[in-house]
Structures are given as structure tokens and as C-alpha cells.
Design a protein that fits this description.
36% strand, three-stranded antiparallel β-sheet, 10% helix, 148 residues, mainly beta, glutathione-dependent formaldehyde- activating enzyme (gfa), eight-stranded mixed β-sheet
Length: 148
């Protein structure tokens, strides 16, 4: 039996659920992720959007990622909580923001991107996969985290 995992935005206008287990998480230390979270890094879990059951309607805005590709950023229009990112609209493959899970305290990143831009004072688990920038094949790297 799998667990039902739930999450959503701060004001609870947008909620989601999916059947666990939670995929391997990773942290990104790039400047864009720091700005997006107003913190030292962003933690995400890659998954398919169709794995989620969503209530409420998130808003979306488009940016250009460091790679030069389009990125669609889904967030709550009421409270502004960033929920997930996708390279398509409507979303297909997403990176769900770990901080939006109702229970996330036991999720540690299996890997780190953009370690070259890591905030001073942040110590990384030496057992985690650490990339100084971003791998050429980001999807393959994310999929490999499941095996670490």
C-alpha cells in the first residue's frame, strides 16, 4: 500500500495530492532559485503532472531558464506560493517544490545543482551527488538520483 502525499500553498486555495512514495529530491543553489525562494536554495522533486490531483487553480508565468529554455512557474494567485515548475503549459513533467508538501521534514536532497553558487555557511552531505553547475542532461541526472 502506498501513502497519500498532500500539499499546497500557504492560504490553502491550491491543494494537491499524489500516491507516494516521494521521488528523490534535489536542491538547486543557482541565483534564480535563491531569488525564487528568497532563501539559500530551492528543493524540488521531479514527477509527472498527471500524478497529481489538484484542487484550486494556480496561476502561471513564463520565464527563461538559465539553459535558455522556457520555464512555466505555477503559483497560488492569492498568497504567491510557488508550487511547481514545468517546461510546458499545460504542464507535463514538473518539479514540485518540496516546501509545499504538508510533511517534508524527513526529505533530504539526494543531489545538488549549482554548488559553485552555494550560499556561504551551507554544509552539504558529502554522500549526496554534487554538481558544480547543471549537467548537460538534467533529466538523466534527476532520474539517476533514484539510484543513489
Amino acid at each position: 500500500m502506498t501513502d497519500v502525499i498532500t500539499g499546497g500553498c500557504q492560504c490553502e486555495a491550491v491543494r494537491y495530492m499524489f500516491n507516494g512514495p516521494v521521488p528523490a529530491a534535489y536542491a538547486c543553489h543557482c541565483g534564480e532559485c535563491k531569488k525564487q525562494t528568497a532563501s539559500a536554495f530551492s528543493m524540488s522533486i521531479p514527477m509527472t503532472f498527471d500524478a497529481l490531483t489538484v484542487t484550486g487553480t494556480p496561476k502561471v508565468f513564463e520565464t527563461i531558464a538559465h539553459s535558455g529554455k522556457q520555464k512555466f512557474n505555477y503559483f497560488c494567485g492569492n498568497c504567491g506560493t510557488r508550487l511547481w515548475h514545468s517546461d510546458s503549459n499545460p504542464p507535463k513533467n514538473i518539479t514540485l517544490k518540496v516546501g509545499t508538501l504538508d510533511v517534508s521534514s524527513d526529505i533530504a536532497p539526494a543531489g545538488h545543482l549549482w554548488v559553485s553558487r552555494k550560499q556561504a555557511g551551507i554544509t552539504l552531505d558529502p554522500e549526496s551527488d554534487q554538481q558544480q553547475t547543471q549537467p548537460d542532461d538534467l533529466i538523466a541526472w534527476r532520474n539517476n538520483l533514484e539510484k543513489i
